[in-house]
Design brief:
Multidrug-efflux Transporter Regulator, Chain: A, Domain 2, 408 residues, DNA Methylase, Chain A, domain 2, Rossmann fold, alpha/beta, 14 helices, 3 domains, single chain, 13% strand
């Protein structure tokens, strides 16, 4: 298969930066060709797969088979947001029996789309989970990354008191699920020099769970047209013989063109919707940025005007004045599409992505409606776990629980 890959696609597949790929090319470590139409630097997939840096565990989409649960698999989800993970889990065959969310707009979104879901709005610290003791298979949650006390050194849950991870751990303690699954930003790996994650693992161990080595999953490898990364922590109850494997990544990458236009991911073009606009001068400046470009593609005098003091500081700042490309996945979506540091400008039109475009990039279906005004909708979508990523993680959980046999 001699599919041509862009520098960005090769960087994503090898988990390195585009600058690293270009450096390897200049040193002869990779062999580039020129695209016959636009003369861009491209690489044959067969050549990339042949080098030792390629992970080697990718599968094609036709190698994946949807698994149905052999019996009902139930889940409690904390910090459920707008439902990206829960919707992905439902597609995977996992039944949500309680979803907690403190944000009133996100809670309204959950109720609006899934009136049959048991949505408990409010502070998780005020919820008693003991009625679910031994009645739930999975407890999941995307708890925020917060600094712990550490003062007690092995005080277990007491060290985490006052944090939302403490409430996640309390739910696990009160319900005794077979599997606990936490998700977070990649930065948790090195938060407080790694001490935060280490303490989380210690707490789960004290609760009677074996923690599988946490893993960062790249959404682009799971039919999501976005370079979002999420850290997943999976813990299996020690008295159960359950084998869990993270889902294998696919060898196909999807682009913004695949997402907003009818094609491989959606049957129709993206529906129109509300969206933010740029101030007049910012729109004038961004109109000069080519597809896939950013502030360094502007004339020098405009660079200085737009970047101000940042122009003279180090670093690439590749998110500033950034226009997306039809031929590449989106950068990670934020809670607001027009933030100067993390610009997400439409490939052709000089405007931020609209709400439904945002939702598609997170692989929400077009009929999933978001409550609140545009700013609240952007926030909910930007904070969500991509639905397709949730689905494949859910399928890995179904596979693990399907092979598990209860002791008689």
């Amino acid at each position: 298969m001699n599919e041509l890959l862009t520098v960005a696609q090769v960087a994503d597949m090898l988990s390195v930066s585009k600058q690293t790929v270009i450096s390897w090319d200049k040193r002869g470590k990779l062999k580039a060709e020129r695209h016959p139409i636009n003369n861009y630097r491209v690489y044959k997939r067969s050549n990339i797969e042949a080098i030792s840096l390629f992970p080697g565990n990718y599968i094609s989409e036709d190698q994946f088979t949807h698994l149905k649960p052999k019996k009902v698999i139930s889940c409690i989800e904390l910090f459920a947001g707008a439902g990206g993970l829960a919707l992905g889990f439902e597609k995977a065959g996992i039944k949500s029996i309680l979803l907690n969310e403190i944000d009133k707009y996100a809670s309204a979104t959950l109720r609006k789309n899934k009136p049959d879901w048991n949505v408990v709005e409010g502070d998780v610290a005020k919820i008693d989970f003991r009625d679910y003791k031994n009645k739930v298979d999975i407890v999941s949650g995307g708890f925020p990354c917060q600094t712990f006390s550490y003062a007690g050194k092995k005080m277990g849950m007491e060290d985490a008191r006052g944090t939302l991870f403490y409430e996640f751990a309390r739910c696990i303690k009160e319900t005794n699920p077979k599997i606990a699954l936490g998700e977070n930003v990649r930065g948790l790996l090195n938060h407080e020099g790694g001490k935060t994650l280490a303490l989380m693992k210690d707490i789960l161990d004290d609760l009677g769970y074996n923690v599988i080595e946490p893993k960062v999953l790249k959404a682009i490898n799971y039919r999501v047209p976005q370079k979002r990364e999420r850290l997943f922590i999976v813990a299996i109850r020690k008295d159960l013989d359950i084998k869990f494997d993270f889902p294998k990544p696919f060898d196909t990458l999807y682009t913004i063109g695949d997402t907003l236009k009818a094609g491989r991911l959606f049957d129709t073009d993206v529906p129109d919707s509300l969206g933010q606009t740029y101030p007049e001068r910012k729109a004038e400046i961004l109109s000069m940025v080519p597809q896939g470009g950013y502030w360094r593609d502007l004339p020098i005098d405009i660079q200085k005007e737009y970047m101000l003091k940042s122009y003279y500081l180090g670093g690439g700042k590749t998110g500033m004045a950034r226009r997306m490309s039809w031929d590449e996945p989106s950068l990670t979506l934020t809670c607001a599409p027009a933030q100067k540091q993390t610009e997400r400008c439409h490939p052709e039109e000089t405007r931020p992505f609209k709400v439904r475009e945002y939702a598609r990039i997170q692989t929400f279906p077009d009929d999933w409606e978001f409550a609140g005004g545009p700013s609240q909708q952007y926030k909910q979508i930007g904070n969500a776990v991509p639905v397709n990523l949730g689905y494949y993680v859910g399928q890995a959980l179904v596979k693990a629980l399907n092979s598990f046999k209860e002791k008689k």
